[in-house]
Amino acid sequence: MKQKLKIWLRAARPFSLTASIIPVTIGAIFAAKESEFQLIYYLLSLLAAVLLQASSNMLNDYDDFINKVDTKESGSSSGIIFENLLTPEELSKGGRLVLALGCILGLFLALQKGFFILILGTIGALSGYFYTGKPLMLKYRGLGAPLIFIIFGPLMTLGGYFVQLQRINTKVLLLSIPVGLLTTAILHANDIRDVYHDKKAGIKTLSIIIGRAGSYYIYYGLISLSYISVLAMTYYRVAPIWSLFCLVTLPTALKNINKLHISNGSTSKLAALDQETAKLQGQFGVILIISILLSTIR
């Protein structure tokens, strides 16, 4: 039983789950500046977001296997299917079950907190399912990056805030930008690494459409704009002055940029760039959360 649980946890790709944890937390913590923090509803909204992301990760693995995007040679999935830890059918059923649980939680939150949560949850669930699922297969059409930015930037951050206060806030929307950019950089790093195998499978990611040089510049831009946006928001007092501590992660960001720059398209040199970008997003996000938390202390 314990071993099976570890397998399912691996299928959920836990290293990537900061992508949903951080924006929901930013929205909820920012709301605490204006009203009493509702811990239970925060935890429920966080769990719903994590379940939706985990289900998308599982279904993405299944779809990539079925569509021959992921192979033993590509090594770009969780490896669950190729190591015979789960069958494709088991992974698909598990992903759908986790998606259903996330939707049930989202529906409960919508009934408690308003129709806007239902809209956000529906967009998130459908986007996660059709990210690689038929008939839309959005990632395979080069729409993965903008979709990831919207879901893990504005949508989840506004959702975390709205659950607390039942209204939206322009500042929260702006605060979602750097985290959304860094989360998009995780996906983009993955796509850059997988260009050869994705081309072979006949799909079109953004990296394939714009070419290697263009895809590198987009990665540089996503990382750079994350820091520029924090500086701008601090200057205009959208973000607290404490948010400047996000700059301590700059050496890690520059290390990732340099790794891509000197890789010369080598898949092996870029094997862990998505995970390293996820670590950067996690560190940056945690510092941003702490900075907002400090600003709530009166």
UniProtKB/TrEMBL annotation:
Transmembrane segments: 12-33, 39-59, 98-131, 143-163, 172-189, 201-222, 234-254, 280-297
Entry-linked InterPro entries: MenA (IPR004657), UbiA_prenyltransferase (IPR000537), UbiA_sf (IPR044878), UBIAD1 (IPR026046)
Protein's UniProt name: 1,4-dihydroxy-2-naphthoate octaprenyltransferase
Membrane-related topology note: Multi-pass membrane protein
Signal peptide start-end: none
Catalytic activity: an all-trans-polyprenyl diphosphate + 1,4-dihydroxy-2-naphthoate + H(+) = a 2-demethylmenaquinol + CO2 + diphosphate
CDD domains associated with the record: PT_UbiA_UBIAD1
Superkingdom of this protein's organism: Bacteria
Gene3D superfamilies per UniProt: UbiA prenyltransferase (1.10.357.140)
Functional description taken from the UniProt entry: Conversion of 1,4-dihydroxy-2-naphthoate (DHNA) to demethylmenaquinone (DMK).
EC category: transferase
